[in-house]
Every structure is written in C-alpha cells, then in structure tokens.
Amino acid sequence: MEPGHTITLAAVGSHLLVGLSRAMILFIVSSGLSFVLGVLRVPNVAHGSLYMIGAFSAYAVFTSIGGGSTGFWLALALAPLVVAAVSFVAERSLFCRLYEREHLMLLLFTFALMLILDDLVKIIWGAEYRSIMAPDYFKGSVTIFGSSFPKYNLFLLAAGPVVAVGLWLFTNKTKIGKIARAAAVDREMVGAVGINVSWIFAFAFVLGCFLAGLGGALMAPTVSITLGMDHDIIIEAFLIVTIGGLGNMWGAMVGSLIFGITQSFGVLLWPQFAIVFPYAAVVVVLLARPTGLLKSVW
Amino acid sequence: MFSKNRKKSRSVVWGCLILGGFLLLSLLSFPPQAQARNIKVGIIDCYSGPPAVYAKDALNGFKLALKDINKKGVLGKKIVFTTRDTKFKVDIALNMAKELVMREDVDILVGTINSGASLAVSEAVAKKEKVPFIVWIAKSERITGEKGHRYVFSTGENTAMAGKAGAVALSKKPYVRYWIAGDDYEYGHAIANAAWRNLKKLKPDVEVIGKSWWKPGEPDLIPYLTSIMAAKPDAVIFCTGGRSMTNIMKAIKATNMAKKVPIWIHTATDHAVLKPLGKEAPEGVMGTMDYHFYYPDTPSNRSFVKAFKAAYGSPPGFPAFHGYITAKFIAEAFEKAGKLNKEKFIDAMEGLKIEGPTGTIEMRACDHQAVLPMFLGVTKYSPKYGVVISSNIVTLRGDQVMPSCEEIMKERRK
Description:
The complex is a heterodimer.
Chain A: H1 9-40, H2 47-65, H3 68-93, H4 103-125, E1 141-144, E2 147-150, H5 151-173, H6 175-185, H7 187-192, H8 197-219, H9 229-244, H10 249-269, H11 276-288
Antiparallel strand pairs in A: 1-2
Helix pairs in contact in A: 1-5, 1-8, 1-9, 1-10, 2-3, 2-4, 2-8, 2-9, 3-8, 5-6, 6-8, 9-10, 9-11, 10-11
Chain B: H1 10-27, E1 39-45, H2 52-72, E2 79-85, H3 90-102, E3 108-111, H4 115-129, E4 133-135, E5 152-154, H5 159-171, E6 177-183, H6 186-202, E7 207-214, H7 222-230, E8 235-239, H8 243-255, H9 257-260, E9 263-265, H10 271-277, E10 286-289, H11 299-312, H12 318-337, H13 342-349, E11 353-356, E12 359-363, E13 370-371, E14 374-382, E15 387-396, H14 398-401, H15 405-413
Helix pairs in contact in B: 2-12, 3-4, 5-6, 8-10, 12-13
C-alpha cells in the first residue's frame, strides 16, 4: 500500500499538532475517569454518558443564551457544573451505598446507570442531531506547516495543559486534593486518621465527572451532539487509563498522547487502515507493561 | 424480565410494570374496530437512538398519507398499522418481523433504516413467508439488486443510484485525480464503489490517488482532512452517513476545505444534516438527494409540505417523502389488485405509477425499485430559510441514475 502522500517534515508537524489537540480532549475526559478509578475504585462505565450530558448541556445553555461568544463561554462554564450536579446526586443517592461491593457489581451498576442516563438524554433532548458553534475568533483555520489547522483546535491545545496544571495544583497543593490522593493509595488509613472518607469520595467522584462534562462541552462545537457520542469516547478513555496506569493522572496524560498521536500519524502513514494504529499501540504497551506505563494505584 | 427482581422494593417493581404497560399501550396502535378485516401494515424500524429521527420522519409521512387514504378507504377497508422498534439491531428486526407476520397476521411489512436488518428481513421473512416487504429508508443497493426477489420492494433511493448520480455530476467536471474517503461500513463502501464504478465508465481517465476509511461516527476527522488536502487531489468523494455527516461538514468548514478542493458527498444537501449546523455549514459542497421540501417548487410538493408542517410542525425530510409514497403505493396497489391478496398485491405493484409530491413515481417491474429522480446541488446559504440549502439544482431522471434491468438481473444471477 502506498502511503497517503509523500511524508514531508511539514506533514509530520501538522499531524503532530492535530494529534496533540485530540489528545487534549482525551486527556480531560480520561483523567476524570482515572481519578474516579483511583480514588473510588469504581470503573465508571457511565463516564461517557456524563461526557455526552456535558455536550448536550452545552447545547442547552448555548441555545438559551442565543449563541454567540457569550453563549459559548457560558456553555463551557455551566455545562460541566450541570454534569457535576448530576453526578453529585448519583453519588449521594446511589454510589455511596455501593463502594464496598465487588468490582463486578460496580461495573454492572455503572452500566445500568449509563443506560438510564442515555435514555434520560433521549427523553430530554430527543434523538435529533444538534450542533453549537464556536465564537467567531475560533472559526476558520490558520496555516501551520503549510496545511490548514482549525483555530478551535489551537484553543483545545491550550485548554489541555491548563486543565492538567489545574489538576496538579489541586491534587498537590490543596488539603482536600492531598487527602483524595492519600485515599487513592490507602483509604482505610485515611479513614483511620479521622477523615470523613465518604465526603472525600463524593468530592472526588464529582470532580471526575466534572472533567467528563468539560470534555463534552469542549468537544461540542466540533462534532454532532447526539446519542451515541458517549460510546465513542468511553472505550478510548478506558484504554487510555489502562495503558497509562489505572488511577494515575499522569498516566492518563501519557495514554492520551499515545492514543491521539498514533491515530493522527496512522492517518498520515496509511489512511485506509488508520483506525488500527491507536489500538495496535495499546496492544504493544500492554504486552510490554501489563500494568500500564506509569505506576498504577491499584 | 421483572420477575427476578423479587423481594426488596416491591413498589418499584409494580411501578415498572405499570410504566411498562403504559409504554406497551402507547407503542401498539390499536386498529379501530372495523366491520371487515382491515389492511394491516406491520412497520419495523429503529425508534430508539440516533436513527430514530429518520424513522419517525418516515412514519409521519406514512401517517399523513394514511389520513387521506382512509377517508375514502381502500377496497372498502381502512389501512391500519402497528410499529415495532428494532433498536437498530438485525436480530430484533427479524424477531419483530416474524412476530408481526405470525401473530399480527400483517398483510405488508414496511421498514427499516438499517440495511443489514432490511436484507435479513427480506431474506428470512419476506421471501420465506411470502409477505411483501417494502424498504423505505435503508440505502443498500443489494436490497433490490443482488439480493432482490419477488417479495421485496424499495421506495427509497439506494447507493447505486446515489453513486451514479454523483458519478454523472463529476464526470462533467475536469477532475482526474480523486481521493475517496468515508465511514468504514457497508454504506460508505457501497457509495464509494457505485460512484467509482460509474465514474470510471463515464470518464475512463480518472484515477484514485488515495483512500481513507475511518470508523463510523469518528469524532476527529481533522487529521484525515489534513492529509487529504496535503495530497492535493483534483476532487474528493466523501462517503459518510448518519452522524458522521455533521462531523465531516464541521471539519470541512473548520479547515476551509471546500474552498480548496471540490467535494462531493451524497447527502451533503440533506436538510437534516444542514439544519442543525445553521450558518456553520460549509458552502460549495456538492450533494445529491432524492427529495427537498423546497424543490421542486411545484403545487403538489408545496401542498405536501404544507400539510406535513401543519401536522408535525417541521418540514418533511426525505424519509417522510418515502413514507408518504409508500402509503400511496400500498393503497393504489390494493385498489388495482381488487382484493386483499399478497400475490395479487405484488402483481399490482409491478409497474404501478403513483402521483407523489415530486411527480409521477413508477415502481419498476423488473427489480421492484421505485424510479426516483436525484437532485444534484451545491450547498449555499439561503437567507430565506436561514440555513444552508441545496442550490443550482440539476435534476437527474430516475432512468439516468438507475442500473438497467439487465445489470440488475446479472447481479442477481451471480
């Protein structure tokens, strides 16, 4: 098979950029999943649905404001909060009763939750395709390395590191973040020193889901907002978390970069079979390091 | 299903049962108590998930036509229908189709949006049980082509027609070096094959310089478009459907691709694709459709659109058009047959001509495929509708875009 076209340095550069911008979304979503996995030990299959609710909420906010730049920023600010609220209710009413159960039970439970949330989305927003628009200054494209690169993807490139730094500051510099990290490593010990683990868990869960919502809201202007978008992301997010090391925030970053960049370079190298590349990368990583690249907290 | 939920929360179980009962009641539309036996149509389609938009649109078109038809009656009877949700799954579609035939004793089966499900029902239920099955949204050319038989019909355009329409359009342009890209599933490949097969025939010097296939619904198409643009093809054929349509249109807009390379996508001019995008839809993309609510601007189309809008609040999409003509075909075929008999119905359907919103539509006798014209247009913003629509429309007659009867028979003999 001939490659897509002659691979120039410029093409490599532009595909690297494109891959990086995809990796940023993947990181934001999978870091949330990883956080929940790490602290709560819950494999939250409904994480993708929360991502979808984030996108739909962004749509709801955007259209009720009447669009435009304000609409976009408000959607970006409020949609993750909506998701956080949904997850808070779910955590306090359901999850908090189930932490001691075995993983299979939790898996089944989150799967059920996913089905329920998907149906809720269908009841509230219906099955039509929806779409929101980025503000004018993010529209169109700029020429980088001789090919057009959407301005919105530049914004995503900036958003990823901001979220990463924010998360790092939070987990390393704030008391509650430190406790959450400690709970991830040894939750009995955290309980033993007199900290209310239940509320730490609630907080960690809500934060993880907030990130899913943020990812959905950030992704909303570039895709069709519709049922089924949750399935696109959840499998990728789980793979990323697995190759990065379960529950490890930086693992999620590394995994996302691997996933996003192999996908993008796959397109460059062999566009007919580009789908295979990220999954092949996952296989290679897992064969070499079955517990993931970075230290797993499990 | 519920019986295993014993003990604990009995009230929840009861609640679920009652709710389930209501749901069942609302799903089954009860035929009015008729004096004689009514004409029963069993509809299987996907009423959950993203494809539900199209399925509901088709059903609305069907219901709208029935309103008029049942005022007069057909053979002194009414046409009644019952629907089943296939959940876009082949096995469920099969079970539902069998159930409708065995238990509900339907005279005609109608459905579905899923090509795989349509093919399966056509083969395992329609052909086996000798029940006419009319496919109204699924676009696989194999339904009335290679896998066609006496008991299956199609009232929608198919990939062979769409691909040929695209090929006819592109063959008139000076492009030689093509890139083909799309969703890696049956629909994507079928469109690609049909377009390329016909284009090569019409203009032998064309060549494919590259192909990209992505998973259906792929959210990030930018890397694909970037590499295609870098290869500088003369034109691109995108073979996308469903929610990939919005994604590809957004990606085209974001990368400004339509200004750099000519692009043809079969359903780029579909209102269901363009409407949610608003002003964000790219202009200058070539597309083909077999129905627009704003074209052709004839009295019959206008009155269909007006009635549809009044009944359902939004203009009809192409599935509504298919649903509408399906009902008319059923009614007129039974009138022509003179009695409620499946074999007579099929004989009557063959070669039957009805008056649809876009003019006279014939059910081709040789392959049971409705002869539909294709409208070729270019996306352009319309201040009148406030969205991007198809402009500079060229109509390709049904016989120009359909494979000939000989070609179909050759396919079937394979």
